[in-house]
Amino acid sequence: MSDTTAPSGGAAAPIVRAEGLTKTHRGEGAPVHAVRGVDLTVRPGEFVAVTGPSGAGKSTLLHLIGGLQRPDSGKLWLDGQRVDEYREARWAVLRRRSIGVVFQFFNLVSNLTVADNVELPALLASLPRSRPRVPRRTSRRARPRRPREVHAR
Length: 153
Ligand SMILES: Nc1ncnc2c1ncn2[C@@H]1O[C@H](COP(=O)(O)OP(=O)(O)OP(=O)(O)O)[C@@H](O)[C@H]1O
Ligand SMILES: [Mg+2]
Prior knowledge:
6 strands; 20% helix; binds adenosine-5'-triphosphate
């Protein structure tokens, strides 16, 4: 098995694959073992909800998958690329091009509209301004989809 490409299964190749992800927060007090050996596979088009009680480590897991925090151990592939060993500059490009995060506490740029906040990564990536990047109105209402649930304890 290659160390840089995720192992492929029978179905579509995973968009996210994690093996044994761990993260311990070390602050002032006792260490907090927020993520302890998470294995996770998400395939393209899948809609997954991570559920669990407050403090179970949901946000920490999403921060690891989104490249906002680094795991202490474990492996992570995004779209087939082994990313857990990426340096910060490479993560910055990957986050700008391929990852969207809606934060628990918003983290929006306060003097921009919501649409402008959504468009910001496209602006930073210098996408052409010839067409609106975010449709201001949608003609069809999206059909609600039920997520696959991953429970954190
Ligand atoms: N930067 C940090 N430093 C120290 N401890 C942290 C840090 N971030 C999170 N923790 C601790 O790690 C544990 C998991 O936190 P996390 O925010 O991932 O939980 P959560 O499941 O998202 O909770 P909630 O449902 O309240 O959002 C908690 O005990 C939290 O206090
Ligand atoms: Mg949270």
